[in-house]
Write a structure and sequence with these properties.
The chain is α+β, with helices and mostly antiparallel strands. The protein is built from 2 helices and 8 strands, in the order ββββββαββα. It has one domain. β7 and β8 form a beta hairpin. This is DUF3592 domain-containing protein. Keywords: Membrane, Transmembrane, Transmembrane helix.
């Protein structure tokens, strides 16, 4: 994906996702290539939400919002959208896109889907367990 998305342009935050992931609504960035508008959302590999009843209502980010993972502290009952504070509507962000297919893009930095690693590890675990079952179980 990184090799394919060789061109860059500026995009603007136009709205936030309706659904949330750990209390985070992601900014949706609109960018224009050759007169055509495209949308892409800001993505993170992992979102770690350290929530507690004793945390303040205002959600705080523990790391840089430009990193691949997001670590936040929030109140378990009610919290603010932390990315809305860091990327208000109208914020310009870099969008990297493919010259052959401008719809294929990513915002700010490329993040691999963590599900691929998890599924790979689970697959290896099952292979290992099958091997143990074949070798050590009585026949």
């Amino acid at each position: 994906m990184v090799e394919q998305c060789s061109l860059t342009t500026k995009g603007k935050v136009i709205e936030y996702t309706l659904w949330n992931n750990n209390g985070v609504h992601f900014p949706i960035v609109e960018y224009i290539v050759n007169g055509t508008k495209y949308n892409q959302r800001l993505k993170y590999g992992w979102i770690v939400n350290k929530s507690s009843s004793f945390n303040k209502i205002k959600t705080k980010v523990e790391n840089d919002v430009q990193e691949k993972n997001l670590i936040i502290n929030s109140n378990i009952h009610i919290s603010t959208n932390v990315l809305k504070e860091h990327f208000p509507i109208g914020t310009e962000l870099d969008v990297f896109y493919s010259p052959q297919n401008p719809n294929k893009s990513y915002v700010m930095r490329f993040v691999k889907n963590p599900a691929e690693k998890v599924l790979f590890c689970v697959g290896l675990l099952f292979i290992f367990l099958a091997f143990i079952g074949l070798v050590f179980l009585p026949k």
